[in-house]
Amino acid sequence: MFIAFIAMVSGCNNAKKAREAAELDSLKQFYLVVKDSLDSTWNFMIAEDDLKLTFMKRLLEEITHSNSYDEETVNSLVSRIEDARLMRYDRQSMGNQNLIDEYDFAINSLIKEITALARSNARYQNFPSMAQLIEYIQETDERVLLHRVHYDFFAKDYNKFINEHGELAKEIDGGDPQNKVNLFQISE
Fold it and tell me: By the 8 A CB rule, do 113 and 76 touch?
């Protein structure tokens, strides 16, 4: 009887250790998935934003091919695209909501101005690629916004994990500074 009791207690301890090991593995997997998703989403978002800027410049090139444009206006818009690219937030600076707002305002203004310039071009109908580029710009702009939503989703999970399991995060990824990451939404 005593041996059966010892075996039962030992079995319970083994089951508890197995459960704890499984929970630890699950936490590690969760961290790795969230960290990878956060980084991937950021990279996709920046790539889409770069693509949008490229489409904007390409639309301006199409306008110049029409031979019906104001050179000073086009050059100014190309310069403003490059200025916007340089002022774009990064993962650290995006903690400043004003910087994001300024960038978004600059980009939205450029999209409106470049689109209006293309559509008002006397030869717009002769250059179907202008309409296609306008569509591409709008589509990439929408995808950037979706990536921001996804980024915030993963950032919240990452921040919660760091808050609750910071030591485990250091153990899993010693190169990760385990600092909470900034969100695109305004903090409450």
Answer: no
Mean pLDDT in residue range 125-152 = 97
In this structure, are residues 48 and 140 in contact, taking their beta carbons and an 8 Å threshold?
A: yes
Are 94 and 184 spatial neighbours (Cβ–Cβ below 8 Å)? yes
- Helices marked H in the chain — which ranges? 2-65, 71-87, 97-119, 128-172
Contact indicator for 53, 81 with CB cutoff of 8 Å: yes
55 pLDDT higher than 80: yes
Residues 154, 100, 56, CA angle at the centre, nearest 5°?
100
Instruction: Say what the pTM is.
Output: 0.84
Cβ–Cβ under 8 Å, residues 34 and 157: yes
